Amino acid sequence: CGLRRDEDVDAVNEAMPDYAGFVFAPSKRQVTAETASRLRARLHPDIPAVGVFVDAEPEDILALLRYGIIDIAQLHGQEDEAAVRLLRERSGKPVIKALRVKEEADITPWQSSSADWLLLDSGASKATQDKYRGVCDNAGVQMALLPRGLLQDATGRSGVAMAVAPGGLAEQIRQNLPVEGKEEHGQQMKSENHGG
User: Fold this and answer.
1) How far apart (Å, rounded) are the C-alpha atoms in residues 192 and 65?
2) How many whole angstroms separate alpha carbon 2 and alpha carbon 29?
3) Which of 19, 67, 107, 118 could form a disulfide with 154 if both were Cys (CB 3.0 to 4.6 A apart)?
4) What is the C-alpha separation between 45 and 151, in angstroms, rounded?
């Protein structure tokens, strides 16, 4: 996520990950639609492009989906179920809704969401970073390890995806999540458990 330069896209094309992302939300990695369009043309056609947004106007997101600049919208703001449903219905494209999760009750209202995926984010509070400091000194935790069964119990769907640094955190995840794991290029692990 956060492709901004030609060399970023070249590295992604070499690694062939499951997804690549453009950040349209305000950040140091933010790109314009024009830059994303140019980079998308350089991106391998088998790599779906995800657009990351925070409280963006639906029409802006829909335009990027319609023009094929992105294939999936990932929403990280205060978007509600109506916004998710509108994007799905009007674009026919997948939507990921990120939820800041502190407890199971934060997930439960989204149980019947029309979102294709729910991304569960701890918010990487200082307490969370301190808790896992010995596990991933250089990784930076973006998602707390979830209690066993929380994802499956709350949503009826299962799967966890997160970026990790080589070493400690990946091993910690393997030990704590009852799922099959796949580590690619020492930098990304995506685990899924379909059906229990």
Assistant:
1) 26
2) 5
3) 107
4) 31
Of the ranges 45-54, 95-104, 111-120, the best mean pLDDT one: 45-54
pLDDT tens sequence across 31-84: 999 999 999 999 999 999 999 999 999 999 999 999 999 999 999 999 999 999
Task: Write out the E strands in the chain.
Answer: 20-23, 49-53, 72-75, 95-100, 117-121, 160-163, 183-184, 188-191
Contact 56, 79 (CB under 8 A): no
Rounded CA separation 117/97 (Å): 6
Compute and round to an integer the Cα radius of gyration of the chain. 17
Q: Shortest CA distance to 17 belongs to which of 51, 46, 53? A: 46
How many whole angstroms separate alpha carbon 86 and alpha carbon 77? Answer: 15
Distance between CA atoms of residues 3 and 151, nearest Å: 29
Q: How many residues does the chain have?
A: 196
